[in-house]
Amino acid sequence: MNLVVFAPVGATLALLFAVYFTRIIFKVDEGTDKMKYIANSIRSGANAYLKRQYKGVSYFFIGMFIILFILAQFNFVSIFVPFAFITGGFFSGLSGYLGMKIATNANSRTANACSKSLNSGLKVAFSSGAVMGLVVVGLALLDLSIWYYILNWYYKALPMAERVGYITSSLLTFGMGASSMALFARVGGGIFTKAADVGADLVGKVEIGIPEDDPRNPAVIADNVGDNVGDVAGMGADLYESYVGSIVSSCALAVSAGLSINGVTVPLVVASVGIIASIIGTFFVKSKEDVSQKVLLGALRRGVYFSSIIIAIVSYFIVVNVLGKEHIGVYFAILSGLVAGLLIGFFTEYFTSDHYNPTKSIAKASETGPATVIINGLSVGMLSTACPVIIVSISILVSYICAGGLNNFNQGLYGIAISAVGMLSTLGITLATDAYGPVADNAGGIAEMAGLDKEVRNRTDALDSLGNTTAATGKGFAIGSAALTALAFIAAYKDSIESLAIKNNLDFTFDLSILNPQVLIGIFIGGAVTYAFSAFTMSAVGKAASKIVVEVRRQFKEIKGLMEGKAEPDYAACVDICTKSALHELVKIAAIAVATPIIVGLILGPNGVAGLLCGATVAGFVLAVMMANSGGAWDNAKKYIEAGNFGGKGSEAHKAAVVGDTVGDPFKDTSGPALNILIKLMSVVSIVFGLVVVTFSLF
Amino acid sequence: MNLVVFAPVGATLALLFAVYFTRIIFKVDEGTDKMKYIANSIRSGANAYLKRQYKGVSYFFIGMFIILFILAQFNFVSIFVPFAFITGGFFSGLSGYLGMKIATNANSRTANACSKSLNSGLKVAFSSGAVMGLVVVGLALLDLSIWYYILNWYYKALPMAERVGYITSSLLTFGMGASSMALFARVGGGIFTKAADVGADLVGKVEIGIPEDDPRNPAVIADNVGDNVGDVAGMGADLYESYVGSIVSSCALAVSAGLSINGVTVPLVVASVGIIASIIGTFFVKSKEDVSQKVLLGALRRGVYFSSIIIAIVSYFIVVNVLGKEHIGVYFAILSGLVAGLLIGFFTEYFTSDHYNPTKSIAKASETGPATVIINGLSVGMLSTACPVIIVSISILVSYICAGGLNNFNQGLYGIAISAVGMLSTLGITLATDAYGPVADNAGGIAEMAGLDKEVRNRTDALDSLGNTTAATGKGFAIGSAALTALAFIAAYKDSIESLAIKNNLDFTFDLSILNPQVLIGIFIGGAVTYAFSAFTMSAVGKAASKIVVEVRRQFKEIKGLMEGKAEPDYAACVDICTKSALHELVKIAAIAVATPIIVGLILGPNGVAGLLCGATVAGFVLAVMMANSGGAWDNAKKYIEAGNFGGKGSEAHKAAVVGDTVGDPFKDTSGPALNILIKLMSVVSIVFGLVVVTFSLF
């Protein structure tokens, strides 16, 4: 039996359970009229933003489609590429859209459920996360399976070996649509959410001294909209892309590893087992009443652990059955990825949770003002990069050696690629534990604005602060898998260029030595590109936030009775500013990502491109980890102070900590997470435009 | 005639002119008794610190000497290495010591000269910088020449080709002493100076609201001491190391490039021509009375340009004479380095001077508080990395191709190495324009504390703020040359291991492909090491600064009449805290630098080490540029506000800008500049311990 059939089955199951969880959410009442009204404002703001974002993005997709279509006419790319590009983008966008749709319906319901009990609230919020997680993995695997079957049918006349080659090299280019959409969603949403958040905090908390989510703050709706368009829709598209990337890159390397169709089957089947394990895992997530945060975190973790154990067991049988006992090393590669993912999660928690020293030391530094908070937070983030780098390095070494790299280089590379699949196999449930955070955050906002009982807000706060930790864990996960996938992409890039060169009778051989100046310069430029990219995303947030600050100040000055709560602020104005700013900046940022590998390729040739990807992966990996962890630690240091330490809310220390948190916002939710997409988008663009580069490059 | 003789001649000339400039300084009177008293406090603080630092460092040097001596007994290293290690460290330390000695005698004299005229002040301060610059290049070239002649005599029985091989491979390891000392001086001094600066500012400027350099501030003497031990002694040792590194790495690559003794002669002679050109250049630095900052900067620049033109012309004849017309490409490599250095200077000025948009935008962001200042400053720094990376990349490509890399790979590498020599050939004068800054800074402090006329302070401020720009330029320069030198070191590392393997009948061949997991993991670890290293240096500053803050607060609370100026603070206590903190942290930091390449080598083998060096170079380069430029821009944004923009001194915007400046302090003066030393120290350690690694490594 061809086990590939498990892929569409798993995908369908995921989507069915997403429907099941959706129904759970909609059974809960939305609460009071005020809650409904607020939820509706958030929902319509989020919809309005996404509509405009997708409209903007569609120009890019149409433009790229035309370019790819023309290239296809001259045989520079396969004719499937432009269409696959569109479907990748479409499904990625759809994942984000559906996730957001559910999240904006779950927020008020979570708040309402929290007025009953903590466990009810957790159930609703987590169900919303689960929908997100399952939709992402379901649609991703569905898209891949459909294309797999289409290609398999189209090339059916070819002998198996050749057919697999065509299938995988086409599949490989399919990530481009997903990555492009992810970039827009992550960066656009990230700019939106953090501009609103930073702007709202700077005036509301710091200048005027009203609490977070106070309905008098004109940016408060924009802030809540942002949680949905950035942390939900953006993250969904982002992880859709990671997931697709890890699977297609291992499929692509299966051919040169000599594993043929069986090497393609393994990642697809492991992914679908992961989906089923995730579905099972979600049923283990439940909590007793009003327990500590630690117990709550345990509840979420339990689901992830159960899923991981299932995957660890079943993968063994998959590998033995599909590849045979002699390739048992591939199983250990999958396992090493799975374990590495869990370990990265642990260390991320250590560096960002206020139960441990690093975050506490940042809180302590707030006693000597904002400057020491920043210095301390940056150094915590920088130091924290060592752990994931060492973990990923060990994982690379283990999976390379286990998969047989010492005897067969290409099998080793396949091992590295499939370890990324192992790491992301639990995505269905890890994403669920991650995506529930913004829903809880929103629920807290609604509880505050609707004037619900203080007890309700305490419960949503408990859920929310847990969400900070799971979010940081999720990011570590996304970045770690991105590093592994990026390596696989570099290897796949080499394979792809070599086979193109042979097919087109071009005289080209790789020299990927780090002493080859083309490679070296590529590495340097790769390092700088990640920084320039982060600079643009950070400054976009800064610029947009400044506009929000000005607008909020204006409203407090001009709208009479606003401070006293007698007049209503103009929420829509802030939403509008965020939307415009976010979309405005996207053009420049997308241009960097797409143009860099092509320009570098045309000047330095494919060796330079490989160097570029390597440099971007290395510099991007450490920078992204630093940003995510500094940001998470600052956020939790602030929360630690708010819990009554070092003077508590309103103290000078708290004000200093808020500065740290504000700097951390674009770090952890805009620039940092965008880096892993940048790396992979550049990789896929390099592969898609490979023949163009080989044909026209100077070197 | 053997042109190598120019090296000791140039070195001697440099030292003679250093004496000449010293006499100019000492002709000026130290000023009032109060000025003498303050200058003396600073001097004795600086001496006390350096004494303790050298004592601490001597343990390290003795320990390493013993290890190297034992290794030499087993033929793991040449018997010259332990001794060269000591002399490198000694001369590097001596450069720093002499520079500091002069600077602490020139500060009050500059203040006194400024009470006469701006030009007189410039003359004294610049003379002090010139002593520093000439001592550094003089001692460096002297050390190299002495060893060259010793080795040449020792190996005189060998035929020329073999002799040159022995000479250059020994010379190569000599950088280790210089780099070790530079690390201690830069990091120790950097922690001292910034802890004092940050601590003094946080309490003085931000909390209590007294001006900078106010004598009531207990940390003010420590702050001024810091300028001398960090920005003078530290920088001197740092650039000594860069200079030596660039010369020895090109000598080492001369052999494999097939240029033999002539390839060694060129860098030595170009360096000595650079010295003479720098001496001539210093005489072009003079200013009219009380002119604008722009004119003043022009005066300094003129010296650098004249020197550059002389070098550009004379190098042509050197190359043609020594290597012959067929190697004229080497001349263009030198030229490309020279030009790249100047260009990096331009762009650094663009990003850090308040005449341009980037710094102005940071100043503007201060209107919305410290968080936006930080976000904006980080993004300016990140964006600014693109320029030096592109400039260095072009320089690599040009020098590689011109030197014949397309036909002979090793000649291309020699071209890259010698372009670093070209870049640093103007060091005598660029260091002079750089090292005069801290003297002017100190002079301003003394003027303030001694209660001199406001006009005097204005003049010292003019000199000082110019110093900020030249300092940032100098750092860009140091980092750019470090990138080129580091590449040369990687190439030299490969050569060195290969020849060791042949000599010792070891079965080892390099596979430096970026897809080789050993290389790849090495690259990843290299990236993480730079971040961990920066984390340690940053947090060391943060910790030490916190201690200073506590101490300063204590003194203001406990010493009655301090705030009113009736009682004197306990300056020595702050100096003592800084000294202890700085030395305490050095151990951990030195351990990282020395242990990392050895551990990575033992686990991953020489391929892993090459990857490590590559990763550290790339990540370190961009991180160091970012830190230097963010720091410089924050500093000047603050000064821009102090000049009356956005509300001026004492406004909320000013307070926000001070936070940026405070974060920037460890960026630009501790962590950033330490990175280029880290990179090169790891390179030399790798080379010295090469045979140990090849013999005992797992892979």
UniProtKB/TrEMBL annotation, chains A, B:
The keyword Ribosomal protein does not apply. Its EC number is 7.2.3.1. This is Putative K(+)-stimulated pyrophosphate-energized sodium pump. The record marks 471 as: Determinant of potassium dependence. The keyword Ribosomal protein does not apply. Keywords: Cell membrane, Hydrolase, Ion transport, Magnesium, Membrane, Potassium, Sodium, Sodium transport, Translocase, Transmembrane, Transmembrane helix, Transport. The gene is hppA. It is a multi-pass membrane protein.
